[in-house]
Every structure is written in C-alpha cells, then in structure tokens.
C-alpha cells in the first residue's frame, strides 16, 4: 500500500480540506479494505459508529478523495462504483457471479505501455486491465447445487 492514512490526511489538510471524524473513518476504512467497497458497503460498515452519517456524506467524501488523488474510482459498467485506495499500478480480476474484485500484479504490462508509446508517439499516462471470470468459491463444484 502506498500512503498511510496519516500521510493522506496531511495531503488533504495541505489543500485546505478540514479533517472531520467521518472523513478520517471513511479514508481509514478504504485504506485498510481489500474488497474495493461500494459507497453503500462503506456506509453499512461505518453507520454503527457514525449514526448521523448519511450515504450522501459518504458519496461527497469519496468524490473529494478521488479529486484529491487519494482514491481511485473503479467503474465496471455495473450498478455502482467501487473505490480503491491502493494507487500502485495493479490489475483486477473480477468475479461475474458475486462481484468480488481481487488485485494482482503483472509487471510485463509496463512493456505494453512502452511499446504503445514508441509506436504511437503518445505520452502514455496509464492503462487499465481487467480479467473476468468466476472466483474460486463461485466456480467450486459444491456451489453448483
């Protein structure tokens, strides 16, 4: 994982964003989550601790974090965005059955960026790769019953 919660909070404060307990909780939840949660999942996890926090508060803060470059929004054409605080170059394997998203690394893909840059003259800023299928639990024979 790249930045710590404290580093991310310092980065936000330096841009004049006031740090509230809710913002701290949302950012901390995202930075410690491996599940690429949706805004609703974040809300369900945090609402017991923050009963006055609304789903709108979650969405507004997620937008703020995305704009500040602390969080990446993942949109895969399904019903809702998922959010990832791991900004390192990595890729996602996505289960079409249950929606689980698993991170994986594959360094040779940086060669693809370099080839694209050489062949097109583009200044490449990044790429996205997704693998689709069924996760191990959805694909297991016991699940088919």
UniProtKB/TrEMBL annotation:
One Gene Ontology biological process: negative regulation of DNA-templated transcription
Highest taxon in the source lineage: Bacteria
Protein's name according to its UniProt entry: Transcriptional repressor
Family the UniProt entry places it in: Belongs to the Fur family.
Residues annotated for Zn(2+) binding in this entry: 95, 98, 135, 138
Protein localization: Cytoplasm
Keywords assigned by UniProt, alphabetized: Cytoplasm, DNA-binding, Iron, Manganese, Metal-binding, Repressor, Transcription, Transcription regulation, Zinc
Cofactor(s) this protein cannot do without: Mn(2+); Fe(2+); Zn(2+)
Annotated cofactor note: Binds 1 Mn(2+) or Fe(2+) ion per subunit.
Binding positions (Fe cation): 127
Gene Ontology cellular-component terms listed: cytoplasm
Molecular functions (GO terms): DNA-binding transcription factor activity; transcription cis-regulatory region binding; zinc ion binding
CDD domains: Fur_like
InterPro entries for this protein: FUR, Fur_C, WH-like_DNA-bd_sf, WH_DNA-bd_sf
Reported function: Manganese-dependent repressor that controls a regulon of oxidative stress resistance and iron-storage proteins. May act as a hydrogen peroxide and organic hydroperoxide sensor.
Organism per entry: Paenibacillus lycopersici
């Amino acid at each position: 994982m790249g930045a710590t919660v404290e580093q991310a909070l310092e980065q936000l404060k330096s841009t004049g964003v006031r740090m509230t307990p809710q913002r701290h909780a949302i950012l901390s939840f995202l930075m410690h989550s491996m599940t690429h949660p949706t805004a609703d999942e974040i809300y369900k996890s945090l609402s017991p601790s923050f009963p006055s926090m609304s789903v709108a508060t979650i969405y507004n803060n997620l937008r703020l974090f995305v704009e500040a470059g602390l969080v990446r929004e993942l949109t895969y054409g399904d019903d809702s965005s998922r959010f990832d605080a791991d900004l390192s170059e990595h890729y996602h394997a996505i289960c079409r059955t249950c929606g689980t998203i698993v991170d994986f690394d594959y360094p040779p893909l940086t060669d693809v960026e370099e080839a694209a840059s050489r062949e097109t003259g583009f200044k490449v800023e990044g790429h996205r790769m997704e693998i689709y299928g069924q996760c191990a639990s959805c694909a297991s024979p016991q699940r088919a019953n």
